[in-house]
Amino acid sequence: MAGVAMNIPRNVMWFEVLLYMSLVLDALSIAFQDRTPSGDTTEAVIMVANVLAACLILAMCYFVWLAAQRRKNWPRWVLVASLVLSVISLFQIVGEDGLHVDSVIEVVSCVLTAAGLYFSFTGDAQGWFNG
Asked: Scanning 3, 74, 106, 128, which has its CA 20 to 30 A from the CA of 40?
């Protein structure tokens, strides 16, 4: 139905908004990371890590858009897998280093992502996603 505007279900809208908010927080978390070169971490390694993180955030934005606007189901599952990996990583980081500003931002980001994904699987979002 090209050219016909479709009303996005309320839960899908919440999914999209919450996931984008989470990705903005992820970008802020990267901004707060320590970029001080050390013996095993050179400036080049830090730069590559930051570029990769930015690319990953852009990819996740694309997945949210594909799911919410193009009604694709598989990006939601990629986002679920990403959330699981983020939570595992967050537990490891907090266990080793404790809570810092960047890890607190990551906790909030994970909560927003979980809430958004919950909305994408419930209520009027059911039946929205295909293929």
From this structure: 106
pTM (2 decimals)? 0.88
Report the Cα–Cα distance between both ends of the chain, in Å, rounded: 16
Q: Other C-beta atoms within 10 Å of 29: how many? A: 20
Token couple for 11: 């839960």
pLDDT in tens, 15-74: 999 999 999 999 988 887 777 888 888 888 889 999 999 999 999 999 999 999 999 999
Residues in Cβ contact with 64 at an 8 Å cutoff, skipping those fewer than 6 apart: 15, 16, 19, 20, 23, 75, 79
**Rounded distance, CA 65 to CA 44, Å?**
32
